[in-house]
Specification:
about 170 residues; alpha+beta; three-stranded antiparallel beta sheet; about 30% strand; elongated
């Protein structure tokens, strides 16, 4: 997996070596984005035609909403490769750190001692592309940390490593 050294000043993440997720994740994200966008756009345009066509205000509004959804889908699809490249994770001494986001970057640190479960999920498209998704369950009820696009051969090893680290940290509590 590609690794890069990146400093994030002010976040306490100087000298962290990040591991990027698989580039194949772009295809999964594109399929999901385009399918959802096409369905919603077609639905809006269809409702616009059914509610009176282009001669009625409701028909025009629904058609414009459909066009807006189509444009938003196109923009999201264009940004997807860059968005996927921004996802990375790092195993530090005391915690697992996940980064994601382009404009609004988000860094999530999960202390090993708080990990209760590390789940490996593989959907049909992920299996076809040889990828997995790691989902973490922690002591906090609202935690929803997931790492998509992990190569399938690395996912099981990473899960086992995280469980091992979690058990050793909990034993020290």
């Amino acid at each position: 997996m590609p690794r890069e050294r990146l400093d994030e000043p002010g976040l306490g993440l100087t000298g962290v070596t990040w591991t990027r997720v698989s580039a194949k994740l772009v295809w999964t994200e594109l399929v999901q984005t385009v399918l959802a966008g096409v369905v919603v756009t077609a639905g809006c345009v269809l409702i616009g035609v059914v509610t009176g066509g282009f001669g009625q205000v409701a028909g025009i509004v629904w058609t414009l909403v459909g066009i807006a959804v189509g444009i938003a889908t196109l923009i999201t699809a264009v940004l997807t490769p860059r968005r996927v490249r921004a996802i990375g994770y790092a195993l530090r001494e005391d915690d697992f750190v996940l980064r994601r986001g382009l404009m609004w970057q988000r860094f999530t640190a999960v202390p090993y001692g708080r990990l209760q479960l590390v789940d490996v999920a593989r959907g049909p498209l992920d299996r076809a592309l040889g990828m997995s998704e790691l989902k973490f369950v922690t002591a906090a009820a609202s935690t929803n940390v997931r790492v998509p696009g992990i190569p399938a051969e690395d996912a099981d090893d990473l899960r086992d490593r995280l469980v091992e680290l979690a058990e050793s940290r909990r034993a020290g509590l």
